[in-house]
Design a protein that fits this description.
Elements lengths: L11 H7 L15 E2 L18 E2 L18 E3 L2 E5 L5 E5 L11 E6 L7 E6 L8 E5 L2 E6 L6 E4 L1 H13 L3 E5 L2 E5 L4 H11 L26 E3 L13 H11 L9 E7 L5 E9 L4 E9 L2 E4 L17 E2 L2 E3 L4 E7 L7 E8 L4 E9 L10 E4 L1 E3 L2
Parallel strand pairs: 2-24, 13-24
Antiparallel strand pairs: 1-14, 3-4, 4-5, 5-6, 6-7, 7-10, 8-9, 8-11, 11-12, 14-15, 15-16, 16-17, 16-18, 19-20, 20-21, 21-22, 22-23
Helix pairs in contact: 2-3
């Protein structure tokens, strides 16, 4: 199954149909104004934001004013790969076609620096495993205990050997708690060759596929800098009921839709509050509109690259949204289906006038991938 992302994530008809099987739970926050309803449990957010967490610069940072230009995920056989705007590459294995789910998936990551190490994560989108042994052409190359996390990571020479053997091997197997299954290797060589090319490693000693004596590329692409607004410890006040009613009418977020009815509030800066207004939910996606409130007046929050959910042309909507006051990250995590093997995730920061895209991950193929490759990164600074 191909999961369309960015502009059109899921048809509204799919969302409405999914609401019939919503589980119950409680997503109230300490400064929520919440009406208890049947509510789907919010999925645990993916640990996205590599390179997007606020950093303390040695000298005053300058905003790059860069327009977000996410890259794309390329598919080679049963492998997907993306190299983001900073040339950080992430390849992930999938099921051979869209009619099945991979029992085991691998994710190979490598940074752009000439001496950047390789890491290989091995895991499953399904149930937890006690022991996994991976072999290529009959030779065991990596083993680990995924446990409740359903994955483990190998680094150093083991990871490099495994990645290179994936590119040259003919058959891969995995022993899962005593039973052996085949793992699709088709497309691995092409995906890793693509990574070498994007990182300037093709023909160099550090390449994963076609090594050579060519000196490696020199300087990786610089990440854009976002100068975010200073964090505040001011406590936001939930908006008054008449203002909430006005916001619901303006955004079309009716209070009688499925899911929790909330207007979670957070202070963004000294004069601005963020209101996350619930707009209904499905079986695994909670829909939210982001609004800002200043001087008792509300307006829809501006984004440099708005999140989209639903049909083309729909208003910007966050999915499974969360705001972390410690980092100032506003997150959206839209799942293409319940197991979370496809979808799109975004992290935003507030710069005083709008929300800026700090990091983005995407996986468009619903074929059992254990991670979503990064397609946009930034460095976030606060002077």
């Amino acid at each position: 199954m191909r999961y369309p992302v960015l502009v059109s994530l899921l048809p509204v008809s799919v969302l409405v149909a999914a609401t019939a099987c919503s589980p119950s739970g409680n997503t109230g926050a300490p400064n929520d104004a919440t009406v208890p309803l049947e509510t789907p449990a919010r999925p645990k957010p993916r640990p996205i934001a590599r390179g997007a967490a606020p950093q303390a610069p040695a000298e005053p940072a300058v905003d790059s004013k860069a327009r977000p230009r996410p890259t794309s995920v390329k598919t080679f056989g049963a492998w997907g790969i993306a190299c983001d705007n900073g040339a950080y590459c992430n390849a992930v294995s999938m099921a051979p076609d869209d009619s099945s789910i991979a029992e085991l998936s691998l994710a190979i990551e490598r940074g752009p620096a000439a001496d950047a190490p390789v890491s290989v994560t091995i895991g499953t989108p399904g149930s937890a495993l006690r022991r996994v042994v991976v072999a290529i052409d009959g030779t065991p190359l990596a083993s680990g205990n995924p446990g409740d996390d359903r994955r483990f990571t190998v680094t150093g020479p083991v990871a490099m050997t495994l990645a290179r053997r994936l590119a040259t091997g003919t058959a891969m197997t995995a022993r899962l708690d005593g039973r052996t299954i085949p793992v699709v290797i088709t497309g691995a060589a092409a995906a890793l060759r693509y990574a070498d090319a994007q990182q300037g490693r093709a023909g160099t000693p550090g390449a994963l596929v076609a090594t050579g004596d060519t000196p490696p590329a020199t300087t990786p692409p610089a990440l854009p800098t976002i100068l975010a607004a200073p964090l505040t410890d001011r406590r936001a006040q939930p908006p008054a009921a008449p203002l909430v009613a006005q916001m619901r009418q303006r955004t079309g977020c009716a209070a009688d839709q499925f899911g929790p009815v909330t207007n979670e509030t957070h202070a963004l800066d000294a004069t601005t509050d963020l209101v996350l207004l619930s707009c209904g939910s499905g079986a695994y996606n909670v829909i939210t509109r982001a609004l800002i409130v200043r001087d008792g007046k509300a307006s829809e929050a501006p984004f440099d690259l708005p999140p989209q959910f639903g049909e083309r042309g729909a208003k910007a909507a966050l999915v499974n949204a969360g705001y972390d006051p410690k980092t100032g990250l506003l997150s959206s995590y839209a799942k293409g289906r319940g197991i979370g093997d496809c979808g799109v995730g975004q992290d935003y920061v507030w710069d005083g006038t709008r929300f800026r895209l700090a990091e983005m991950r995407m996986m468009g193929d619903c074929r059992g991938a254990i991670t979503w490759p990064v397609i946009w990164r930034t460095t976030v600074a606060r002077n």
